[in-house]
Design a protein that fits this description.
The protein is α+β, with helices and mostly antiparallel strands and 230 residues long. 57% of the residues lie in helices and 17% in strands. Helix 2 runs antiparallel to helix 6. The protein is elongated, with a radius of gyration of 24 Å. The longest helix has 48 residues. It has 2 domains: 158 residues, GAF domain (Beta-Lactamase); 55 residues, Arc Repressor Mutant, subunit A. It has a 5-stranded antiparallel beta sheet, with helices on both faces. Keywords: Kinase, Transcription, Transcription regulation, Transferase. One of its GO terms (molecular function) is kinase activity. This is ANTAR domain-containing protein. It comes from Nocardioides oleivorans.
Length: 230
């Protein structure tokens, strides 16, 4: 399978679905489902992040993915631990012959019946989000077309995650600014302040209490009580 003809249409649908997704978890699930559907050699897929040295599978198509990634953590070796910007796609074509991760490869093949694995870094120029893991059952392996499709999928996911986080951050910033504005209004009414004086009051409370200005504003709006700054 290639990304031409039918592939282009499938990726267009995937992009639309990612834009419409409710949150990042849904975007990850869409990508994992698409990997199993679009990558011909893929039987299982998941998305893994490295959190303080621990591999965490955020989304998996099934228990095979969860266990395969758990074994990487338990044994201290595996593709998801090594994939990085200097090697964004790492392929283990035959786990029975894999020498880079001998203990992991033997366990995954014996316990889960997996024959081949591909790990792809999901990243943009500014951020790395995690690792898309694709597994093929014994007797199967990933060919060059599979790699092209998988890398295209990883790129779509990276763009979707970056855009989704930017939208979320913008929404949070807007909510904070609206809350601060409401708190300023309360201060202006209660203390007969100007808008500038009200904002300076909030900054002083934030500085004196070592708490975020938006948190102070939210408390004022919620409780209608004014903090004491001495």
């Amino acid at each position: 399978m290639t990304t031409t003809n039918t592939g282009v249409g499938e990726f267009s649908k995937l992009s639309d679905a990612m834009w419409s997704a409710r949150d990042e978890q849904d975007r990850l699930q869409l990508a994992v489902d698409a990997a199993v559907q679009l990558v011909r050699g893929c039987d299982h897929a998941g998305f893994t992040v490295n959190e303080v040295g621990a591999l965490v599978t955020r989304v998996g198509s099934d228990d095979t993915v969860l266990r395969a990634n758990e074994l990487q953590q338990e044994l201290g070796e595996g593709p998801c631990r090594d994939v990085a910007r200097d090697q964004v796609t790492l392929i283990c074509p035959d786990l029975t012959q894999e020498r880079r991760y001998p203990a992991w490869a033997v366990r995954v093949h014996a316990e889960l019946g997996v024959g081949s694995m591909m790990s792809l870094l999901v990243y943009t120029a500014r951020d790395s989000f995690g690792c898309l893991s694709l597994y093929a059952d014994a007797g199967k392996s990933f060919d060059s077309d599979d790699v092209v499709v998988a890398e295209t999928l990883a790129a779509h996911l990276a763009i979707g995650m970056r855009s989704g986080r930017e939208v979320t951050q913008m929404g949070q910033a807007l909510d904070s600014r609206l809350t601060i504005g409401r708190a300023e209004g309360i201060l202006m009414e209660r203390l007969q302040m100007s808008a500038e004086q009200a904002f300076d009051y909030l900054r002083r409370v934030s500085s004196h209490t070592n708490r975020k200005l938006a948190v102070i504003a939210d408390e004022i709006v919620s409780t209608r009580r004014l903090p004491d700054i001495g």
